[in-house]
Structure formats: C-alpha cells, structure tokens
Design a protein that fits this description.
With about 300 residues, the protein is α+β, with helices and mostly antiparallel strands. It contains twelve helices and eleven strands. The chain is extended and about 85 Å long.
C-alpha cells in the first residue's frame, strides 16, 4: 500500500478540520501553507459563498433542475435500459468468476447469516454470557474484551491518532458545589437536593472498599455518607447491566455488614434548571472546560 503523508488545518470561516494528503511531504506542506495564506475555505463554505454572491443565478439553476428532473433526484421516474442492465450483469458475473473458492464461501456465509438468520440477531454478548457464566467470570471477560479493543485501536491504529481533540471534549462533569468536589451532574443534583433539604452529607471518598476483578485487587470508593448510610450515585442502566458495578455492590454490602452501615446505590434525575439556579447564586463553580459545555448541553435539552 502506498504511503501518504497527512496534514491538517482548519477552515478559516467555520473552523472545521480539513485533511490534506500527498506522497511528498515537502509539496504537502507547501500546499497547506498556500491554502492558509490565501484563506482557502472548505467546500461547504465555498458553496455557501457562491449562493450568497449570486442568489439569482443559483435560484435559476435550481428552478431549471426541478423543472427538468423533479424535486426528488436526477433518476426520478426513470429506469435502466436493457443495455445498461446487461452491462451491470456481466460486470457482476466477471467479478464473481475472479473470486477464489474461499472468497465465494465468505460471501455466501455473509448473505446466509444476515438479519434473523444470524444467531446473534437482537442479542448482545452479555445475553450469551449471562446464560453461561457467573458474575465474576463475566466481569473478567468484559475487562479482557476492553483490553483487546484498546490494543486494536491504540497509537496509529486509532482514527483520531495525530488529530487535535474536538472543542469541549472531556469525560464527565467536574467542579465544586459549596466547596465540595463533584464528578458528575447526578452527584451534583444529589448534593443540591440534600443541601436544600438541610440534610448533612459528607464525601465518602476516604472509605476504601476492596474487591477482586480479573484476579487483581481493586479499590472502590463510594460517593457520600449520611449518618450510617453509604451512598453511591450511578445511572440506572449501569446498576442493572454492568457486571463490574455489580461486583462493587457486592463488595460494598459486605463492607457495610462488617462496619454496621447500610449501603444504598441509586440513580438521580438531572434537573438543569436547578443547576442553573445554583450557578446564578454562585454556589456552584464548574471547571472552565465544563462551564461552556454545560451551557451548550442545557440548550440542546430544551
């Protein structure tokens, strides 16, 4: 396979990332430098500029196109000629004749195993594993699968390798509410609710609960403690389906039995209006990356 060099730049108008490829790195750098100097925009912005500069001309072209072809597509109401059909048929047969027996068998297998004929149709690997293994084995197999997937897409094998992260990217939500650190909007809403109801809560991150995963010692730290209640905040989908979360729950129950505590794991509804109120009161401070992210995220919800 021929090696191609790749360079990136951003569209000067919409800031979209553009890709430049070429065989010669020297020529490629010169082309990118020329494009940046001349402020060459992407194809979308170029089309938009043309539309804005010549609206009458573009409207005339559109009207002519619709009158000739209709408003759906260039092939609307038309069909292939017998000559064209025969040409396609010969091409397909020629391609099939050039395949090896192994390649032909692969094509047939793909066709036979499509849709409802596939044994995994409508199922996930977890459904199969739950019928065969215990929770400990499922957790180990899940971790193994994640490790293998990570190796398959590590370094230059990752499509994002060498590319800058997208604006506002990041995992979770971080900040301080009444000088207490939080790592998710669910944790934040829990803290706001307890504060407004005058319920005293503390961080439970100083509590370390040991458990075993993949024959290795791991440590789990819950979120909050209220009186003798140890509390973990998690989305309901993870509580119901995640094997690793179930291992943590089991370990937490054992820890609480020994230490005369009661373990509670629960989901919390995220109230964006309440969060906005706390921001306005200056009780809540997101880390800089997440403040703008929250504003944009809230706007998409309403």
């Amino acid at each position: 396979m021929e090696n191609l060099f790749t360079l990136y730049r951003n569209c000067p108008k919409c800031d979209k990332q553009l890709t430049h490829q070429g065989k010669s790195l020297r020529n490629l750098k010169a082309n990118v430098k020329r494009a940046e100097k001349n402020k060459i925009v992407c194809m979308s912005c170029s089309a938009l500029n043309l539309l804005q500069r010549h609206p009458d001309k573009m409207q005339k072209l559109r009207t002519t196109y619709i009158e000739k072809h209709g408003n759906i597509g260039t092939f609307t109401g038309r069909s292939l000629s017998d000559t064209h059909k025969d040409k396609i048929s010969k091409k397909v047969k020629s391609n099939w004749a050039n395949l090896t027996d192994e390649e032909r068998q692969t094509c047939k297998t793909k066709f036979i195993n499509k849709g409802h004929h596939n044994g995994m149709f409508g199922k996930s690997y977890l459904d199969i594993w739950k019928a065969k293994y215990d929770e400990q084995t499922i957790a180990e197999k899940t971790l193994n699968m994640k490790i293998k997937k990570s190796l398959r897409f590590s370094g230059c094998l990752n499509p994002q390798y060498g590319k800058p992260p997208s604006s506002g990217s990041g995992n979770g939500w971080k900040g301080h509410y009444n000088n207490m650190f939080f790592r998710s909007l669910r944790e934040l809403c829990f803290m706001i609710d307890k504060t407004r109801n005058n319920i005293i809560y503390k961080s439970a991150e100083n509590i370390s609960i040991p458990y075993i995963l993949h024959n290795k010692n791991r440590t789990y730290r819950p979120d909050f403690i209220i009186n003798n209640h140890l509390i973990e905040i998690k989305p309901q989908r993870l509580i119901d389906k995640c094997p690793i979360v179930k291992l943590k729950i089991e370990a937490a129950h054992k820890y609480c039995e020994i230490n005369n505590l009661e373990y509670i794991i629960t989901d919390v509804i995220i109230d964006y209006d309440v969060i906005k109120e706390e921001i306005d009161k200056e009780n809540l401070i997101f880390q800089p990356l997440y403040m703008q992210k929250f504003i944009e995220y809230r706007e998409t919800k309403f």
